[in-house]
Amino acid sequence: MVTWAEVTRWDSVPLQNAVGEVNAAYNKVIACSDDLRGINTADGWHGEAAGAAANEVDQVIDGLEEYAAEVAALRRGAGDVGDAISGVMNGVKEAEGLARAHHFTIGGDGAIIDNGPPPDTPEEQKEAVARERATIAAELRDRVSEVLKSATDIDDDFCLVLDRIVSGQTIDATGNDNDNTSLAAAGNSGAAMGSLSIPAPPPESATAAQNAAYWATLSEAQRTRLAVDRPELVGPRDGFSAKQRDIANRTLLDRQQSRLRHERDELQRKINEFPRTGAGQIKLNDQLEFDALKVDLDKLDGKLRGLDDIDKRLSMSDPNSPDYDPTKQRPYVLRVDDAGAGRAIVAMGNPDTAQHVATYVPGTGSELSEVNTDLGRADGMVNAAQQAGAKTPSVITWIGYDAPPGLLDAANESFADDGKHALDNFQDGLRESHQGTPSHNTVLGHSYGTTLVGHAARDEHLAVDNIVLVASPGVGVDHASQLNVPPDHVYSTTAANDAINITNFPRIEGQGDPLDPLGPDPTDPEFGGKTFTSDPGPRGPILGNSEAAHSEYWTRDNPALRDMGRIIAGKQPGH
Fold it and tell me: How buried is residue 523: exposed, middle or buried, by Cβ count under 10 Å (0-12/13-18/19+)?
């Protein structure tokens, strides 16, 4: 077992330098292939001497094949280990940096030593500081554990490669046809044996911090290799880098499109071949089954439309595509899943490098089939943030939960409670995977999406700087202070003619108000947050309210969009 003290002294440079020298030796060996083919026994030479000469030649060829395999295995192993060590060194650097920043020390045995909070910590803050330090200590333990696990895996793998080389067990050259020998083929076999495995990641239930601790120990090459070889493992993982998640999820997107098209064709065939009467009518007792097939077909069409919309948005960032649009931010697919109503998490701009990051949570009726509308809103918020001075914003469309399918379902808090942990873990992952100076993060909900945001902030303590509530039916709290961010960082707006106003009844004293099950209107001055302006929207037949006004916050000239951009950029609305 490798110790922390040993790992902190590891250095990848000697191995990386050795690869060049070993490669030069390998190339000299491979150059002998043509010569070997010409030294077999001459035609017409027979007898005891000829047989002895042939045996000697065979031994020379077999020895060179084994040598080529051994040199190739060493070259591959040294290269892989040097690369892997660079990942482990990064894991050490991140762990030690986190420890220093919070006044912890990592002992030579990997123990986490708490050197105590700042001595001037106010009495009323000591309990909260203690909880925070316990969380940091747990993350440090995870990071040390992942570094040591990866280091031990590297050490074991390289020892196995070296043992095979030393014991002459890279290949068995005696079974080869020496009349057609290929030292390059022998070298390829040896190189395959010299490759290192990538340590297994934490379980699927791991937190974003645990995922990030593991990810920090991998080199860039290992991360990309894992994304290419195991996209289903990398794609949905909060805490892994957006770059590799995007690589993995684009592969998953292609697979899901192909599978759904096949399923759709099969379903359409069943519908076309469904038994009918002589008049071409569906028998009455078969009508329910036939209708169910058509419903399933509509769902498949919707999911395919959503996947195709994501695919088209990706093509807008490809200069070789006819859809290329240089004004659009490059998208990163952070999750795509057609199970149930479907999941889609797409970032406009890289959230790992962006200075300002916003997560947009849509509301009732949001699902994979409707993703194109939400992607357009994200594009609008990116532009608004840039106009407000944000140089590198990233706005993420987060369809990561089962939203209420209709208005009657939207009075139920269960959809928010079921999705709040996923949102919290995603926001934690953004913090964990971000590079350099921490970004300024905003979470923005629309309609029932604000209810989910509110429940997550109330119960999970979202890792965000700002909360923005657009057209909210209520967020599960009576006051902005209950959302675990400063009340002056909670912003809300509702259009004067928005139909949501019909559901925001005057609050009756006490929790569980049957007229207002989701909580009071966040734009109410008594809620305690800040409000910003929106265009009133078109008037409707019921008290002047309309459904159309519920969706116009992202129109180009709406002051609400301008102010959302300002908040994302770290500025105050209305200025």
Answer: buried
The CA distance from 464 to 453, in Å, is: 11
The end-to-end CA distance of the chain, in Å, is 59
**310 burial type by CB count under 10 A (0-12 exposed, 13-18 middle, 19+ buried):** buried
Is residue 248 within 8 Å of residue 255, measured between CB atoms? no
| Number of DSSP helices (H) and strands (E) in the chain, helices first | 15, 10
Task: Name the CATH superfamily for 328-568.
Answer: Alpha/Beta hydrolase fold, catalytic domain (3.40.50.1820)
Q: What is the pLDDT along the chain (575 residues), one digit of tens a residue?
A: 899 999 999 998 898 888 888 888 877 777 776 565 555 555 666 667 766 666 666 666 666 777 778 878 888 888 888 999 999 999 999 999 999 999 999 999 999 999 998 888 888 888 888 989 999 999 999 999 999 999 999 999 888 888 888 887 766 655 555 454 566 677 677 677 777 888 889 999 999 999 999 999 999 999 999 999 999 999 999 999 999 999 999 999 999 999 999 999 999 999 998 888 777 788 878 889 989 999 999 999 999 999 999 999 999 999 999 999 998 999 999 999 988 889 999 999 999 999 999 999 999 999 999 999 999 999 999 999 999 999 999 999 999 999 999 888 888 999 999 999 999 999 999 999 999 999 999 999 999 999 999 999 999 999 999 999 999 999 999 999 999 999 999 999 999 999 888 766 554 444 445 556 788 999 999 999 999 999 999 998 877 888 899 999 999 999 999 999 999 999 999 86
Query: How remote is the C-alpha of 142 from its chain's centroid?
Result: 19
Q: How far apart are CA 457 and CA 418, in angstroms?
A: 14
* Cα four-point dihedral sign 317, 320, 323, 325: positive
Beta-sheet pairing, 112-114 with 440-446: unpaired
DSSP 3-state assignment of 558?
Answer: coil
CA distances from 423 to 334, 360, 440, 459, 464 (A): 13, 11, 17, 11, 11
CB-neighbour burial class of residue 514 (10 A; exposed 0-12, middle 13-18, buried 19+)? exposed
What percentage of the chain's residues is helix, strand, coil (to nearest 5)? 55, 10, 35
Tokens for 486, please give them.
């400063």
d(CA 306, CA 365): 14
- For residue 350, give every residue at least 6 positions away whose Cβ sits within 8 Å of its Cβ, in sequence order, or none: 242, 243, 330, 332, 394
Torsion of CA 335, 336, 342, 347, to 10 degrees: 60
φ/ψ of 343, rounded to 5, equals: -125, 145
Contact 447, 411 (CB under 8 A): no
**Which class for 322: exposed (0-12), middle (13-18), buried (19 or more C-beta within 10 A)?**
exposed
The CA distance from 458 to 451, in Å, is 10
Domain range summary for the chain, segments of one domain joined by +: 4-229, 328-568
Q: Which residues of 490-510 are buried (b: 16+ CB within 10 A; e: fewer)?
A: bbbbbbebbbbbebbeebeee
